[in-house]
Design goal:
Layout lengths: L1 H6 L21 E8 L19 E8 L2 H9 L4 E4 L6
Antiparallel strand pairs: 1-2, 2-3
Length: 88
Amino acid sequence: MPTIVELLGEDYSVFGQSFHEFKQDEVRHRVFYDRTYDTEYPDVKRYDGMQGGANIYYKYEYDGNLGAIQYQYDNELHEIFPMVDSYY
């Protein structure tokens, strides 16, 4: 959010640090949620009342670059969060 506000030419300080302020070697903590379907979990209703679509989130937390998240993704190192409803 701060980077978007910065690019609009507005004061972004209330939103935190802009992407442009991170140093190349600075370690950042990131979280990635992957919405998916898993047969081990119950179906959830979609926005239109129908069953189906995604029913869980895989949560990946990592420090580092693309290689760090790729390693976790490839080795299924994630937390699972069941959905209660789904837009998709």
